[in-house]
Amino acid sequence: MHVWKVLELFLIQPLVWIGLIRCYLAARHRVHYERLHFRSAIDAHYLEVRNFFKDGLLFGVIATVVSLALGLVVSPIWVVIYELLAVLSLLLIPTRLTPVTVFGLSWLVYWVLNPSLVAQIGARLRTHGVISLGLNSGVIISGFLILGLGLAATAVLLRRRDTQLNSPQIRPDQRGKRIVRYRWQQLLVIPVGVLIPGDWLHATLPWWPVFQVGTQQFSVLLLPLLLGASVQVYKQQPQVAWRRLAKDYWLVAAVSVIFALAARWLALSPQWLIGLLGVLVVLLWGSLLRHRYHDQHQQFWFSDTDQGVRVIGVRPKTPAAKLNLSIGDVILECNRQPVHSEAQFYAAILTSPTYVHLKVRNVQQELIITETAIYSGAPHELGIVLFTDQED
């Protein structure tokens, strides 16, 4: 019963609901765009919102177990600063996600406000039973480990196929030719159980769990940790690019843990610790810039073609999913008829209403033959997303 009450208090925090609203709006925009440009949505079930709840809870449970096992302690004042900055980032930057930047900035603000302002606020909070921690009490080391947990969770998201939806977005190039951008944008706000000093929550809510460590009492707080990434590709297979980027997230997560261990062993000053947090933010931004540079210097484009019709999307749980097609493949023949437009493609499907036979040139320039049964009399339910025919 107490666990549910703790979770209820997590759910009333503004960051959770603003994150959910932001996630819902992004999913609704994607579905509307797909229906407008491709006649039907690739996935109309608002996958982003489903991941927000399902993966948010899963990663939250894992992160809480690890956090409480390590005894990670944070300052209530830093929690307020972090949540405020996270909310502002979601409201003021509608098309980007900057979780790591917000996390690092929150510690910088906390350090700048120390010791004068935090001391004044801390004195007032102590009258209400709230104990504020200084920067020398190991809270920044807890920050390193919390950041490592967040980066690791993001890396898992980037590698998991069931959290990815390769939604094509059509853009014109410099010559007016249509090209496709694939964007992965997933936002999570996960509940991470952390320890905060004092028994002020227990004094207000007698059922609230309290831990005794030596002479110090700690309460458990579910910190809403903002996670996610917003990345795009123009010239790479999305899954390949996301997996490559996931390795960088894992690497920065490992560096974060190493920094935490080194800080504990060497007893580094707060200035050094804040500087190391800045290094982690720079490392991750460097990884994102390298991802963008690598994409820009590829030769391949997901572009319209005069030789066949290019596959720019495959709807899940449709006959097309059984054809082993990949985005970027070019369909040269359908049911042994050459096709050069979307209209010709669907006309060729109607020549065999229950089965489809395709000749395809994949992105490696290899010719392959693939076939599958289809829904009788419903060629547009095959599940292959193509460039729509342009009006003359």
UniProtKB/TrEMBL annotation:
Pfam families: PDZ_2. Keywords: Membrane, Transmembrane, Transmembrane helix. The chain crosses the membrane at residues 7-27, 57-81, 88-113, 133-158, 210-229, 249-266, 272-289. InterPro entries: PDZ (IPR001478), PDZ_sf (IPR036034). It comes from the Bacteria. The keyword Repeat does not apply. Residues 298-364 form the PDZ domain. This is PDZ domain-containing protein. It comes from Lactiplantibacillus brownii.
